Amino acid sequence: MNYFVGTMNLSVVCVSLAFAVFSLLADRARAKLKSDDDCEVCIKFLTRLSDTIPEEDANKMERIEKHLRKACASAKGKENRFCYYVGATEDAATGIVNEVTKPMSWRKPVNKICESLKSKDAQICELKYEKSIDWKTVDLKKLRVKELKKILSDWGEECKGCAEKTDFIKLIEQLKPKYVPHQEL
Predict the structure, then answer these.
(1) pTM above 0.85?
(2) For each successive 10 residues of the chain (185 residues), what is the average pLDDT?
(3) 76 and 82 in contact (C-beta within 8 Å)?
């Protein structure tokens, strides 16, 4: 009887330990998936910025800031919002530019810079690029009017006098050669 109880306790311990290890591994996998998608705009923008900074400027904070402000002056959409959050735009209310330029001058990896920025302002890592439209496969008839209006708005166009969904689709089809590169059609 005593042998049976000892064996049963050992089995319970082994099953519990296996469950704990499995849970830990699953949590790590979920965290890895989340971190790959985390700080998308920050990482891509700062990577592109660091690639454009000449070697002689790469360890000077003032010059890095100059390059950052220049890149932010022409940034659009989510990248402009990122620049606003770090204080690199004219209208920004905050100023954590040094939190970008100082670590860049030390050649700290961009993903680590973005992680530290996240602790200063979580909104920085919540920015995501909008999904682009695959013009080869998209069926405009299946999109909502709101999405069709967004396409036109992104192109700087509007559909005056459009009352029906088909009106928006016709206009997009007419303007597509002007705004969509030929290889994407």
Answers:
(1) no
(2) 56 59 52 60 96 95 96 93 95 90 96 95 92 89 93 90 94 92 66
(3) no
